[in-house]
Amino acid sequence: MWNPFKNYVSPKRLRESGVMGMNRRNFKVISQYNERRLYPLVDDKVQTKQLAQKAGINTPKMIGTIEFQHEVKNFVNLVQEVKEFVIKPAHGSGGKGVLVIAQHDGEKFIQPSGKVLGYKDIYKHISNILSGLYSLGGKYDVALIEEMVHFSNIFKDYSYQGVPDVRLIVYKGYPAMAMTRLSTKASGGRANLHQGAVGVGLDIQTGKSLKAVMYNKPILLHPDTQADLSKIEVPMWKEHLLIGAKAFEMTGLGYLGADIVLDANRGPMMLELNARPGLAIQIANGIGLIDRLKLVDKKFPKNLSPEERIEFLLNKAKF
Amino acid sequence: MLKNYLTTRFFLTVLLFLSLIYASFSAYYKIRYWGFNFAPNQNSDIWTIEASINFDPTGEPIKILLTTPKTSEQFKVLEENVTAEGYKSKKIVKDTERMQITSPAKEGPQTVYYRVMLFDNVDAKGKTYAKQPQAPEKPVLEEQTEALVKQISDLAKKQEGNKVVQIIKELNQVPGSPAVKALMPVKKTQKELMENLRLILSYNGIPNRVVRGFKLEEDRRSFNPDLMLEAYLNNKWMIYNIVTAEKGLPDNFILFQRGGESLLDIEGGENSSVKFTVLKSITSSLSLAEKRAKLTGHKSWFDYSIYSLPLAEQSTLKWLTIFPLAILVIVLIRNIVGLNTMGTFTPMLISLALVKTGFWPGLICFTLIVAVGLTIRFILSKLNLLLVPRISAVVIFVILIMQFLTVAGYQFDFTIAQSAVFFPIIIMAWIIERASITWEEDGAANAGREIFYSLIAAIVTYFIINDEYIRHIMFAFNEFNLVILCVVMLLGTYTGYRLTELKRFAPLVKEK
């Protein structure tokens, strides 16, 4: 017999497994621990970058910003000193509107994929950013130009184009769950799971892979590079965790998502923060978030410095 | 955390119960004292006609004479009243019935409402009697006109039917004879047609008079009365449609005025106009309710309810009272089912358009507009336009598509296309813009899915708000809007899983 709910499970079983749903995240976590007035700190990447510098968190260097339409034509002057750069909307989300240029001569701009763009393409892209095409709610936006990350060779085999990043869910200053997102051909080089990127759950204490999923289904090998996804071990894991922990003091957000990339020369760098991180990380880990958050609530000490929290997490916490 | 959450939800639950108690009491009150009913009034035998008379006073005392319907074969006058501040009204019954509304001199534009309630006059069928009228005076005509009239009268004899029918048919024949064309323009108004028709009938010695009235259809607003001809032939008055020559009163046609006197005379006013509104069922039963409320001494409440408003306003409110329910449906679809639609209330606006266009025509039209719009949007994206001019261009393209569909629909008598105008233009443009961006960024499948989900939400909403019972209940018992408000707020504290999450997170369930 045809059963439309064949792939569905009962709410009771999800609850027993500690899975956090969207409504619960919004009502019980975000609205409780993330004050609305703090959102601009993370929604505006320029502000986030400035805050991060003050807090001593490593981020890609800002080359410049373009605020007004008449400034757009000056972007060539901004980037003439640098070989490679990234243009992104200051208020973008989910990697929308991010343009990476690996090489240019002021007229031709070459993307990492080898695609060549002209001056006009870049001009249009920046104009689109300014007019709010990629920003939340379509408000006027600012284009941010920053240096490109030279992502560590360690991830080379695990990604089809794009920069693999580590996403940490930080709850009350404690990294509670982690994953890395690997772009694929299907995701168009982007790192969004719903677009077809691979999500690899990482052990929060070691940075070793637990499980990999693509389109919600477990996989073992990267679909394009055939690399063994169970062998991933993120180097400098403690430094990754420390960035996440510091982001709590830096923003005051009790529940946040930190996106961290590993630069070959400069180590882990914070790319952006998110005040409403998605729930797909649970699928990548194969574990619900609720139990983790409850553990932090009940067993983890409060009023520690970021370094002390990471020490606690690595040495004393039991998951 | 737990405490805080409990109090919010507890507070809202209490509020919900209070609103439920209030709504139940209010509904009981309306049923008990005002005679409201949960079922919509389906026997359409009670009609309310409202005439709104507008004019600018000249500074002299005002006297308005409005011809009013009298009890006829078809309809009985149940109640009539005049709503006008500072005016006195009096019924004058002579050959015709007229309402005289007077007032001392006034300043500024004036609006006077006359409302009459009619119902099917079952008792009086076939009992109207008529005096033998005198033959009309033969009109004095110019030589040329007389020749034309004579020519037409002769030509008409070749048509079928009685004399009157013959003349009407001759005048409306397409293509018209040269004589008819010479007498009046090809694109004639109802008035021109009536004048010439009467001229020819009088020339032929047939007594005739003009009849003004309305076809009673629900929700007609601000229209002019229809003209019909009444002619005395073979010892009886008979009503004719002046275009189709059909005999007799159409169904649900109410006569407002017969013969001689004009519909409206105003002394002390200029630039006058009179517009009519017809409403059936709910308002009619509500008007009855007003009467009942008066009798039982429960009128004061009624004065502050929406049912005491003029009919045109009630018609609008009938729509507004259904909105909260549509909003509730959207909340359920987004937060309980978990479908991601384009924009929060876009599906609701699409569903409202569907109600106006009808289901299939609307759906086909929507698909056409979005499909053509997307194609054009892809061409636009090659032109490197900035966002605001680009979305503006899409808006204009949507308007052009609508114009094209409407004109094409009219030319090919294809009614589906004509419903294009009912879709909210800006909303359509945003759907196209968002869909094309999603298409570029996340692929066609995601864009298609977004549109599909929005349509699903719109269709579900459509079936709920298009139901006659639900619409009647939401209007007649508008206090349930308050209950919906509380339910919506309470849903804001729902922390359970969405239906779609039961599938999305299924792999996370620990095997036992």
Detailed description of the structure:
The complex is a heterodimer of chains A (319) and B (512). Chain A has 319 residues and is of the alpha+beta class. Chain A has two domains: 11-42 and 152-315, ATP-grasp fold, B domain (D-amino Acid Aminotransferase, Chain A, domain 1, 2-Layer Sandwich), CATH 3.30.470; 61-147, ATP-grasp fold, A domain (Dna Ligase, domain 1). Helices cover 29% and strands 23% of the residues of chain A. Chain A contains ten helices and 14 strands. Chain A has helices at 11-16, 22-33, 39-43, 45-55, 75-79, 119-130, 237-251, 280-285, 289-299, 306-315, and strands at residues 62-66, 85-89, 99-101, 103-104, 108-110, 116-118, 143-147, 165-171, 174-182, 198-202, 209-214, 217-218, 255-263, 267-274. In chain A, a hairpin with a 6-residue loop joins strand 10 (198-202) and strand 11 (209-214). The radius of gyration of chain A is 20 Å and the shape is globular. Chain A starts with 10 loop residues before the first helix and ends with a helix. The mean pLDDT of chain A is 88. With 512 residues, chain B is of the alpha+beta class. Chain B has a domain at 322-477. Helices cover 49% and strands 19% of the residues of chain B. Chain B is built from 18 helices and 13 strands. Chain B has a five-stranded antiparallel β-sheet. In chain B, helix 10 (346-357) crosses helix 11 (359-381) and helix 10 (346-357) crosses helix 15 (444-465). The radius of gyration of chain B is 30 Å and the shape is globular. The model of chain B is unreliable at 121-129 (pLDDT under 50). The chains are: A alpha+beta (319), B alpha+beta (512). The interface between A and B is large, with 42 and 32 residues.
